[in-house]
Amino acid sequence: MIRTPLCDLVGIEYPVFQGGMAHISDGTLAAAVSEAGGLGIISANSGADWLRGQIHIARAKTSGPIGVNVMLMSPAAPDVARVIAEEKVEVVTTGAGNPAEYMPLWLEAGCRVIPVVASAALAKMMERCGACAVIAEGGESGGHIGEAATMPLVPQVADAVSIPVIAAGGIADGRGLAASLMLGAVGVQIGTRFIAANECSVHPHYKALVLKATDTSTIVTGRRLGHAVRSLKTPYSRRYAKAEYTDISDSDLEALGVGSLRKAAVDGNESEGCYLAGQISGMIKKEQSAAEIIHEICTEAEQILKNASVYVK
Ligand code: TUI
Predict the structure, then answer these.
(1) Is 153 in the pocket of ligand 1 (CB under 6 A)?
(2) Residues sharing a CB contact under 8 Å with residue 197, sequence separation 6 or more, in sequence order
(3) How far apart are CA 74 and CA 76, in angstroms?
(4) Spatial distance between the Cα atoms of 193 and 171, rounded to a whole number of angstroms
(5) For the chain, how many structural domains are there in total?
(6) Beta bridge partners of 134
(7) Residues 155 and 185 reside in one and the same domain
(8) Is the pLDDT of residue 270 over 90?
(9) What pLDDT digit, counting tens, does each position of 151-193 carry?
(10) CB under 8 Å to 124, separation ≥6 — which residues?
(11) Closest C-alpha residue for ligand 1 atom 12
Protein backbone atom coordinates (compact mmCIF):
# COMPACT_ATOMS: atom_id res chain seq x y z
CA MET A 1 0.00 0.00 0.00
CA ILE A 2 1.18 3.51 -0.81
CA ARG A 3 1.32 5.71 2.27
CA THR A 4 3.20 8.99 2.54
CA PRO A 5 3.49 11.86 5.06
CA LEU A 6 0.71 13.63 3.11
CA CYS A 7 -1.76 11.03 4.39
CA ASP A 8 -1.07 11.96 8.02
CA LEU A 9 -0.86 15.69 7.27
CA VAL A 10 -4.45 15.91 5.99
CA GLY A 11 -5.98 12.71 7.38
CA ILE A 12 -6.42 10.74 4.16
CA GLU A 13 -5.73 7.12 3.20
CA TYR A 14 -4.19 7.66 -0.26
CA PRO A 15 -1.88 10.55 -1.30
CA VAL A 16 -4.18 11.74 -4.07
CA PHE A 17 -5.94 15.13 -4.26
CA GLN A 18 -8.70 15.72 -6.79
CA GLY A 19 -8.02 19.13 -8.32
CA GLY A 20 -10.62 21.85 -7.95
CA MET A 21 -11.91 22.43 -11.49
CA ALA A 22 -13.99 25.52 -12.23
CA HIS A 23 -17.71 24.73 -12.80
CA ILE A 24 -16.87 20.99 -12.55
CA SER A 25 -15.72 20.07 -9.03
CA ASP A 26 -18.81 20.16 -6.84
CA GLY A 27 -19.66 18.73 -3.44
CA THR A 28 -20.79 15.39 -4.88
CA LEU A 29 -17.52 14.72 -6.73
CA ALA A 30 -15.43 15.93 -3.78
CA ALA A 31 -17.36 13.71 -1.35
CA ALA A 32 -16.89 10.64 -3.61
CA VAL A 33 -13.14 11.23 -3.71
CA SER A 34 -12.86 11.84 0.04
CA GLU A 35 -15.05 8.81 0.77
CA ALA A 36 -12.66 6.74 -1.39
CA GLY A 37 -9.71 7.83 0.75
CA GLY A 38 -8.33 10.73 -1.32
CA LEU A 39 -8.95 14.43 -0.79
CA GLY A 40 -11.95 15.78 -2.69
CA ILE A 41 -11.75 19.49 -3.47
CA ILE A 42 -14.69 21.76 -4.36
CA SER A 43 -14.02 24.61 -6.78
CA ALA A 44 -15.27 27.93 -5.37
CA ASN A 45 -15.61 29.46 -8.84
CA SER A 46 -19.43 29.58 -8.79
CA GLY A 47 -19.66 32.01 -5.86
CA ALA A 48 -19.94 32.09 -2.06
CA ASP A 49 -23.57 30.96 -1.66
CA TRP A 50 -23.15 28.08 -4.09
CA LEU A 51 -19.96 27.06 -2.27
CA ARG A 52 -21.64 26.97 1.14
CA GLY A 53 -24.35 24.70 -0.26
CA GLN A 54 -21.79 22.36 -1.84
CA ILE A 55 -19.77 22.14 1.39
CA HIS A 56 -22.97 21.04 3.18
CA ILE A 57 -23.72 18.49 0.43
CA ALA A 58 -20.21 17.06 0.73
CA ARG A 59 -20.34 16.94 4.53
CA ALA A 60 -23.61 14.98 4.34
CA LYS A 61 -22.01 12.39 2.03
CA THR A 62 -18.65 11.84 3.74
CA SER A 63 -17.07 12.11 7.15
CA GLY A 64 -13.64 12.46 5.53
CA PRO A 65 -11.83 15.78 5.22
CA ILE A 66 -12.73 17.97 2.24
CA GLY A 67 -10.96 20.81 0.48
CA VAL A 68 -11.98 23.99 -1.31
CA ASN A 69 -10.01 25.63 -4.13
CA VAL A 70 -10.02 29.40 -4.48
CA MET A 71 -9.16 30.91 -7.85
CA LEU A 72 -7.56 34.13 -6.63
CA MET A 73 -8.27 36.13 -9.81
CA SER A 74 -12.01 35.56 -9.32
CA PRO A 75 -13.99 38.60 -8.11
CA ALA A 76 -15.74 36.26 -5.65
CA ALA A 77 -12.45 35.38 -3.87
CA PRO A 78 -12.94 37.66 -0.80
CA ASP A 79 -16.45 36.28 -0.18
CA VAL A 80 -15.52 32.62 -0.68
CA ALA A 81 -12.48 33.13 1.58
CA ARG A 82 -14.87 34.10 4.38
CA VAL A 83 -17.18 31.11 3.76
CA ILE A 84 -14.18 28.76 3.94
CA ALA A 85 -13.21 30.17 7.35
CA GLU A 86 -16.81 30.13 8.66
CA GLU A 87 -17.31 26.52 7.54
CA LYS A 88 -13.89 25.51 8.92
CA VAL A 89 -13.02 23.59 5.76
CA GLU A 90 -10.14 21.20 6.50
CA VAL A 91 -7.97 22.10 3.49
CA VAL A 92 -7.83 25.25 1.33
CA THR A 93 -5.96 25.22 -1.95
CA THR A 94 -5.45 28.37 -4.00
CA GLY A 95 -4.61 29.01 -7.64
CA ALA A 96 -3.56 31.73 -10.05
CA GLY A 97 -2.07 34.10 -7.51
CA ASN A 98 -0.61 34.82 -4.10
CA PRO A 99 -3.02 34.04 -1.23
CA ALA A 100 -0.96 35.79 1.51
CA GLU A 101 -3.74 38.27 2.36
CA TYR A 102 -6.19 35.47 3.23
CA MET A 103 -3.82 33.17 5.10
CA PRO A 104 -4.21 34.69 8.60
CA LEU A 105 -8.03 34.30 8.31
CA TRP A 106 -7.80 30.65 7.24
CA LEU A 107 -5.07 29.69 9.71
CA GLU A 108 -7.03 31.32 12.54
CA ALA A 109 -10.06 29.16 11.54
CA GLY A 110 -7.90 26.01 11.72
CA CYS A 111 -7.80 25.36 7.96
CA ARG A 112 -4.71 23.79 6.44
CA VAL A 113 -3.56 26.01 3.58
CA ILE A 114 -1.92 24.39 0.55
CA PRO A 115 -1.34 26.93 -2.25
CA VAL A 116 -0.70 25.94 -5.86
CA VAL A 117 2.63 27.42 -6.92
CA ALA A 118 4.26 27.65 -10.32
CA SER A 119 7.70 28.71 -9.01
CA ALA A 120 10.15 27.97 -6.19
CA ALA A 121 10.07 31.67 -5.18
CA LEU A 122 6.32 31.62 -4.46
CA ALA A 123 6.70 28.26 -2.68
CA LYS A 124 9.24 29.80 -0.28
CA MET A 125 6.99 32.79 0.39
CA MET A 126 4.03 30.48 1.09
CA GLU A 127 6.12 28.48 3.56
CA ARG A 128 6.93 31.72 5.42
CA CYS A 129 3.19 32.66 5.44
CA GLY A 130 2.18 29.41 7.17
CA ALA A 131 1.32 27.01 4.33
CA CYS A 132 1.58 23.39 5.55
CA ALA A 133 2.44 22.13 2.03
CA VAL A 134 2.47 23.42 -1.54
CA ILE A 135 1.19 21.99 -4.80
CA ALA A 136 3.82 22.42 -7.55
CA GLU A 137 1.77 22.49 -10.74
CA GLY A 138 3.46 22.25 -14.11
CA GLY A 139 2.17 23.60 -17.40
CA GLU A 140 1.01 20.17 -18.59
CA SER A 141 -2.12 20.67 -16.51
CA GLY A 142 -5.45 21.92 -17.76
CA GLY A 143 -6.66 25.43 -17.05
CA HIS A 144 -4.56 28.38 -15.95
CA ILE A 145 -0.87 27.47 -16.16
CA GLY A 146 2.55 28.85 -15.31
CA GLU A 147 5.73 28.57 -17.39
CA ALA A 148 7.55 25.56 -15.90
CA ALA A 149 6.79 21.93 -16.64
CA THR A 150 6.18 19.42 -13.84
CA MET A 151 9.43 17.43 -14.26
CA PRO A 152 11.73 20.44 -13.62
CA LEU A 153 9.35 22.29 -11.25
CA VAL A 154 8.72 19.61 -8.62
CA PRO A 155 12.36 18.88 -7.64
CA GLN A 156 13.24 22.59 -7.64
CA VAL A 157 10.31 23.40 -5.36
CA ALA A 158 11.17 20.38 -3.15
CA ASP A 159 14.73 21.69 -2.81
CA ALA A 160 13.51 25.20 -1.99
CA VAL A 161 11.15 24.44 0.92
CA SER A 162 11.03 22.22 4.02
CA ILE A 163 7.26 21.66 3.85
CA PRO A 164 5.84 18.75 1.80
CA VAL A 165 5.33 19.17 -1.94
CA ILE A 166 2.46 17.72 -3.96
CA ALA A 167 3.02 17.31 -7.71
CA ALA A 168 0.41 18.35 -10.28
CA GLY A 169 0.21 18.71 -14.03
CA GLY A 170 0.48 15.82 -16.46
CA ILE A 171 -0.36 13.12 -13.91
CA ALA A 172 -3.16 10.62 -14.53
CA ASP A 173 -2.08 7.16 -13.38
CA GLY A 174 0.21 5.12 -11.13
CA ARG A 175 3.21 5.87 -13.31
CA GLY A 176 2.67 9.58 -12.68
CA LEU A 177 2.28 9.03 -8.93
CA ALA A 178 5.41 6.85 -8.72
CA ALA A 179 7.41 9.36 -10.78
CA SER A 180 6.20 12.24 -8.60
CA LEU A 181 7.41 10.48 -5.46
CA MET A 182 10.80 9.99 -7.14
CA LEU A 183 10.93 13.75 -7.90
CA GLY A 184 10.58 14.53 -4.21
CA ALA A 185 6.80 14.94 -3.90
CA VAL A 186 4.69 13.26 -1.20
CA GLY A 187 1.59 12.94 -3.34
CA VAL A 188 -0.23 14.15 -6.42
CA GLN A 189 -3.10 16.36 -7.43
CA ILE A 190 -5.08 15.08 -10.39
CA GLY A 191 -7.77 17.05 -12.18
CA THR A 192 -8.56 15.88 -15.69
CA ARG A 193 -8.91 12.17 -14.90
CA PHE A 194 -11.69 12.95 -12.43
CA ILE A 195 -13.72 14.54 -15.25
CA ALA A 196 -14.31 10.93 -16.31
CA ALA A 197 -15.49 9.91 -12.83
CA ASN A 198 -19.05 8.57 -12.65
CA GLU A 199 -19.73 11.03 -9.84
CA CYS A 200 -18.63 14.01 -11.94
CA SER A 201 -21.73 15.84 -13.16
CA VAL A 202 -20.02 17.91 -15.88
CA HIS A 203 -21.94 18.03 -19.21
CA PRO A 204 -21.70 14.62 -21.00
CA HIS A 205 -20.24 16.36 -24.05
CA TYR A 206 -17.23 17.43 -21.93
CA LYS A 207 -16.62 13.83 -20.82
CA ALA A 208 -16.95 12.62 -24.40
CA LEU A 209 -14.34 15.12 -25.63
CA VAL A 210 -11.86 14.06 -22.93
CA LEU A 211 -12.45 10.36 -23.68
CA LYS A 212 -11.77 10.80 -27.38
CA ALA A 213 -8.70 13.05 -26.88
CA THR A 214 -5.21 11.99 -27.95
CA ASP A 215 -1.73 13.07 -26.83
CA THR A 216 -1.86 16.17 -29.05
CA SER A 217 -5.43 17.26 -28.33
CA THR A 218 -4.69 20.30 -26.11
CA ILE A 219 -3.69 23.85 -26.96
CA VAL A 220 -2.52 26.84 -24.87
CA THR A 221 -4.26 30.17 -25.45
CA GLY A 222 -4.36 33.46 -23.54
CA ARG A 223 -0.62 34.24 -23.51
CA ARG A 224 -1.24 37.62 -25.17
CA LEU A 225 -3.36 38.74 -22.20
CA GLY A 226 -0.99 37.18 -19.64
CA HIS A 227 -3.35 34.36 -18.60
CA ALA A 228 -2.17 31.21 -20.34
CA VAL A 229 -4.85 28.50 -20.31
CA ARG A 230 -4.66 24.90 -21.56
CA SER A 231 -7.81 23.47 -23.12
CA LEU A 232 -8.93 20.87 -25.63
CA LYS A 233 -8.66 21.83 -29.29
CA THR A 234 -12.18 22.76 -30.39
CA PRO A 235 -13.58 25.18 -32.95
CA TYR A 236 -13.71 27.75 -30.10
CA SER A 237 -10.11 27.35 -28.91
CA ARG A 238 -8.74 27.35 -32.47
CA ARG A 239 -10.72 30.54 -33.19
CA TYR A 240 -9.34 32.15 -30.03
CA ALA A 241 -5.77 31.04 -30.84
CA LYS A 242 -6.01 32.59 -34.31
CA ALA A 243 -7.54 35.82 -32.94
CA GLU A 244 -4.55 36.28 -30.60
CA TYR A 245 -2.35 36.86 -33.67
CA THR A 246 -4.66 39.38 -35.35
CA ASP A 247 -5.03 43.11 -34.62
CA ILE A 248 -8.18 42.49 -32.50
CA SER A 249 -8.15 44.76 -29.41
CA ASP A 250 -7.32 43.27 -26.01
CA SER A 251 -10.82 44.05 -24.74
CA ASP A 252 -12.47 42.26 -27.69
CA LEU A 253 -10.15 39.30 -27.13
CA GLU A 254 -11.04 39.28 -23.44
CA ALA A 255 -14.74 39.34 -24.38
CA LEU A 256 -14.24 36.14 -26.43
CA GLY A 257 -13.35 34.31 -23.20
CA VAL A 258 -16.14 35.59 -20.95
CA GLY A 259 -18.44 32.79 -19.80
CA SER A 260 -16.65 30.19 -21.93
CA LEU A 261 -15.81 27.82 -19.04
CA ARG A 262 -19.45 27.67 -17.97
CA LYS A 263 -20.59 27.21 -21.57
CA ALA A 264 -18.38 24.11 -21.79
CA ALA A 265 -18.93 22.54 -18.37
CA VAL A 266 -22.61 23.33 -17.85
CA ASP A 267 -24.03 23.79 -21.36
CA GLY A 268 -21.76 21.45 -23.37
CA ASN A 269 -21.57 24.19 -26.03
CA GLU A 270 -18.83 23.16 -28.47
CA SER A 271 -18.76 26.32 -30.59
CA GLU A 272 -18.43 28.77 -27.65
CA GLY A 273 -17.24 26.63 -24.72
CA CYS A 274 -13.65 26.41 -23.44
CA TYR A 275 -12.96 22.79 -22.41
CA LEU A 276 -10.08 23.03 -19.95
CA ALA A 277 -8.13 19.76 -19.81
CA GLY A 278 -4.56 18.60 -19.30
CA GLN A 279 -2.05 16.97 -21.63
CA ILE A 280 -2.86 13.55 -20.15
CA SER A 281 -6.38 13.67 -21.64
CA GLY A 282 -5.27 11.12 -24.23
CA MET A 283 -4.60 8.60 -21.42
CA ILE A 284 -8.20 8.63 -20.19
CA LYS A 285 -10.14 5.87 -21.93
CA LYS A 286 -13.12 5.08 -19.73
CA GLU A 287 -15.56 6.34 -17.13
CA GLN A 288 -15.00 4.88 -13.67
CA SER A 289 -16.03 5.61 -10.11
CA ALA A 290 -13.80 7.93 -8.10
CA ALA A 291 -12.92 4.96 -5.87
CA GLU A 292 -11.84 2.84 -8.87
CA ILE A 293 -9.69 5.71 -10.16
CA ILE A 294 -7.90 6.18 -6.84
CA HIS A 295 -7.39 2.46 -6.18
CA GLU A 296 -6.12 1.86 -9.71
CA ILE A 297 -3.60 4.72 -9.45
CA CYS A 298 -2.30 3.62 -6.06
CA THR A 299 -2.13 -0.10 -6.87
CA GLU A 300 -0.24 0.63 -10.08
CA ALA A 301 2.21 2.98 -8.31
CA GLU A 302 2.83 0.36 -5.62
CA GLN A 303 3.71 -2.29 -8.24
CA ILE A 304 6.00 0.11 -10.09
CA LEU A 305 7.85 1.17 -6.94
CA LYS A 306 8.23 -2.46 -5.76
CA ASN A 307 9.65 -3.48 -9.13
CA ALA A 308 11.92 -0.44 -9.49
CA SER A 309 14.82 -2.19 -7.74
CA VAL A 310 15.37 -4.29 -10.90
CA TYR A 311 17.24 -1.27 -12.24
CA VAL A 312 19.63 -1.16 -9.28
CA LYS A 313 22.51 -3.63 -9.66
O1 TUI B 1 -5.64 27.96 -10.97
C2 TUI B 1 -5.29 27.02 -11.66
N3 TUI B 1 -5.98 26.61 -12.74
C4 TUI B 1 -7.17 27.13 -13.15
S5 TUI B 1 -8.03 28.36 -12.42
C6 TUI B 1 -9.20 28.29 -13.59
S7 TUI B 1 -10.57 29.32 -13.61
C8 TUI B 1 -10.27 30.48 -14.78
N9 TUI B 1 -11.18 31.40 -14.92
C10 TUI B 1 -11.06 32.36 -15.82
C11 TUI B 1 -9.96 32.43 -16.64
C12 TUI B 1 -9.01 31.50 -16.53
C13 TUI B 1 -9.16 30.50 -15.59
C14 TUI B 1 -8.90 27.33 -14.46
N15 TUI B 1 -7.77 26.69 -14.20
N16 TUI B 1 -4.15 26.32 -11.39
C17 TUI B 1 -3.32 26.68 -10.32
C18 TUI B 1 -2.19 27.48 -10.80
N19 TUI B 1 -1.75 28.52 -10.18
N20 TUI B 1 -1.46 27.24 -11.89
C21 TUI B 1 -0.51 28.20 -11.96
C22 TUI B 1 -0.71 29.01 -10.86
C23 TUI B 1 0.02 30.17 -10.44
C24 TUI B 1 0.69 30.96 -11.36
C25 TUI B 1 1.39 32.07 -10.94
C26 TUI B 1 0.05 30.50 -9.09
C27 TUI B 1 0.73 31.63 -8.68
C28 TUI B 1 1.38 32.39 -9.61
O29 TUI B 1 2.09 33.49 -9.22
C30 TUI B 1 1.41 34.44 -8.48
C31 TUI B 1 2.31 35.52 -7.97
O32 TUI B 1 1.74 36.57 -7.64
O33 TUI B 1 3.52 35.29 -7.88
Answers:
(1) no
(2) 29, 32, 33, 287, 288, 289, 290, 293
(3) 5
(4) 9
(5) 2
(6) 165
(7) yes
(8) no
(9) 999 999 999 999 999 999 999 999 999 999 999 999 999 999 9
(10) 160, 161
(11) 144
Which residues, other chains included, contact 274 with Cβ-Cβ below 8 Å and sequence gap of 6+?
Answer: 229, 231, 234, 236, 237, 240, 257, 260, 261, 263, 264
CATH code assigned at 155: 3.20.20.70
Amino acid identity, residue 260?
Answer: S
CB of 280 closer than 6 angstroms to any ligand 1 atom = no
Task: Please give the pLDDT value at position 248.
Answer: 95
| Sheet containing 143-144, strands listed edge to edge, beginning at the edge strand earlier in sequence | 143-144, 229-232, 218-221
How far, in Å, is the centroid of ligand 1 from the Cα of 97? 6
Give residue 266's domain range.
218-276
